[in-house]
Amino acid sequence: MxxxxxPRRSMGSMSAPVSTVEQAIxxxxxxxxxxxxxxxxxxxxxxKSVDLAADGVVTIGLLLTVAGCPLRDKLRTDITAAxxxxxxxxxxxxxxxxxxxxxxxxxxxxxxxxxxxxxxIPFAQPxxxxxxxxxxxxKGGVGKSSITVNLAxxxxxxxxxxxxxxxxxxxxxxxxxxxxxxxxxxxxEMIMPPQAYGVKVISIGMFTAGNAAVVWRGPMLHRAxxxxxxxxxxxxxxxxxxxxxxxxxxxxxxLAQLVPSAELLVVTTPQxxxxxVAERAGAVALQTxxxxxxxxxxxxWLTLPSGERxxxxxxxxxxxxxxxxxxxxxxxxxxxxxxxLDPRLREASDAGTPIVVADPASPAAAALLSVADQLxxxxxxxxxxxxxLRPAARR
Length: 395
Ligand SMILES: Nc1ncnc2c1ncn2[C@@H]1O[C@H](COP(=O)(O)OP(=O)(O)O)[C@@H](O)[C@H]1O
Ligand SMILES: [Mg+2]
Prior knowledge:
Blueprint: E1 9-10, H1 20-29, E2 47-52, E3 57-64, H2 72-84, E4 91-98, H3 101-111, E5 131-137, H4 144-157, E6 162-166, H5 174-177, E7 185-187, E8 190-192, E9 195-196, E10 199-203, H6 218-230, E11 239-243, H7 250-258, E12 263-268, H8 272-288, E13 292-303, E14 309-310, H9 317-329, E15 335-341, H10 343-350, H11 355-358, H12 363-382
Parallel strand pairs: 3-4, 5-11, 5-12, 6-10, 6-11, 12-13, 13-15
Antiparallel strand pairs: 1-2, 2-3, 7-8, 9-10, 13-14
Bound molecules: adenosine-5'-diphosphate and magnesium ion (MG).
């Protein structure tokens, strides 16, 4: 059988009405979302050309946002499936190219709704499905960062898409704890975060020279946090954890303004003095109308070789903070877990491998994994419901 061949037509250059097949191809392409940006590829300026040959072979010229885009195969599969269903299409071929600087700038301004004025924070948009948890403590050294990295890694290991913003201006230690030495890369004004154990990480330390101490004033901090949230290309996150500086400072308040749906997770030790200041850090939620997701007690005890528990920092701090915050906000603030002291936790952190990965069977890791499970379960139960638009006290 001989197929009569006609010259190829290019839709891009055609001004006459397009055929119904071509129309249908365009409609099919409009159903394909970019897997990272979650918007139709046709809206993002990614479809450069569509050529329909007489034998029913469609060649689609597709522009990737960056060369070596890891989601290229996903795009190929989705486009082939969508266009392949169009009657009259025999085969789909994709000719990949890369956007020029000009095209990327155009895309960026499109993503920002045509304006470059105020950066848009995806997590603050009404439809956002990202759970944002700010990890707070009354004072430093209670294990806030250790808990942040372990929860993040545990959630990533469960298949969640996870990011961390290390916003602790005094003691940014997250990259080290995750063994991240890479710096963020920049595509136009988008910052691509380095990744470890499936967790995307941005740290305030990545933007300061060496180990230099920086005096952060409120407005500067606000801008920095805004940039981390808006200009970092996080993709579609299930969970974003923020390691806040200890205490009740500017960062917590800026975060509440930038992402009102962010919820607070309070870390304390069992010590009464620590619990009192932790309570104050949690009480910020009342003023900012944020929800308190719960309390994690760290350094709860040390198990001696005899099996006996040595309560190095006393007992009851976590439960006390949970109770008083519950009373304060008028909604349940549970004690989500008690993490024992374990030298392996510190060693794993120092080596850049969180203990939930390095030694998941250890009691400290088990306690952290259980907290991660509770956060994950919480997210499932929230699926489909509007998130975080109401203050905790008035639920
Ligand atoms: N449960 C624990 N067992 C042993 N060491 C811990 C534990 N939690 C934290 N540490 C260690 O204590 C130190 C302070 O913890 P870190 O997470 O940096 O606290 P923060 O972020 O609150 O300042 C780190 O050296 C860390 O490895
Ligand atoms: Mg820290």
